[in-house]
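Worked Example 4.2. Consider the chain below.
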Amino acid sequence: MKRVAVLGSTGSIGTNTLCVLEGLRDRFELFGLATGRKWQELAEQSRTFSPRVAVLADAALSRSIPANSFPASTELRFGAEEVTRLASHPDVDVVVAAIVGAAGLESTWAAVEAGKLIALANKETLVVAGQPVTELARRTGAKLLPVDSEHSAIFQALASSGDGVPQAPPFGDSTARRPSSVKRIVLTSSGGPCRGWSRSQLESVTPQTALCHPTWKMGPKITVDSATLMNKALEVIEARWLFDLEASQIEVVVHPQSVVHSLVEFVDGSCIAQLSPPDMKLPIQYALTWPDRCECPGPKMDWTRASTLTFEVPDRELFPALDLGFEVARRGGSCGAVLNAANEVAVDRFLNGTLSFTDIPRVSRSVLDAHDFDPAPGLTDLIRLDAWARQEASRWKSSHSI
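Applying the procedure from the previous section yields the following structure tokens:
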């Protein structure tokens, strides 16, 4: 039995993880849950799964939760530091890192430092701190297994390289290495709700429109990122570090059906892709059970139904966020922390009505260009730069009307 901690348990990835764990009770024990403020949902999850520990990152809630809301078998803790403690707890074997945004960095770092097996859904960890996190994983023996459907697809395809040597990830494995048999990887993008729109249409996109994703059901931040293609930009950066690739070995294509989750092209010209319906349960389960496979609660492909799979080149002029991702993947250093922080603030301002949709990549570009580049920042430097970029993005003013 492996003991699991789910960080971000009330979000989309967290709830899907619990669905997967429901069917794997003979293999996994849920040790702990953590979320930000959603104490009612956390209490319900605790009553269902009886974890030893439940954590609310918002310490102010400690004074307002009614008595007996949580089962007696679950210890309720408060504060961000308790999330970090859970991630590094000696009784935890597997950490599902599903806290959205840079807020998940410190707890994921703690899990890496403690040498855990980490099912990584928090892509921002590698966007912000790709080089130091992967170097730390190699030192501690931590294993980073991707939960993003695109990176899980790449990971699964890499297993077909045929040379008998495990490919990265997982970092921490002494045999993991740069995938020399790989020519390039291709990340697929649904194109989001604004695929095919004109420039004038994009200027008038509302939060309601941006949040209507055609194939995936996700939280608001990642859904807006999908609409701007910033999510794919962040995935480019994540893939660069997760698979030890050069930015020039990564490409993006638009695939509206979201069935081909990504593919690998090998040096002999063979291309291997991973296909499944657009649902997160399969990549979550594979990260948990790797290298084994077992029955999954997610939907299955129905090959008896007629269907068409299409692929398009993304319009980088209308969706400039994608170029930002490739630039940051090439430059590395402090760029990821700055881009991620600026984008998080810009998305929040868009959702709050103080920034237009097309201003999101403009803010990100402006703040990225203005920062003092550091080629080898430490964790303290990255936290400082994150705060600086958020401040800059918060006071950025558009020359366009909103």
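The mean pLDDT is 93. The CA atoms of residues 333 and 376 lie 5 Å apart. Compare this with Example 4.1 before moving on.
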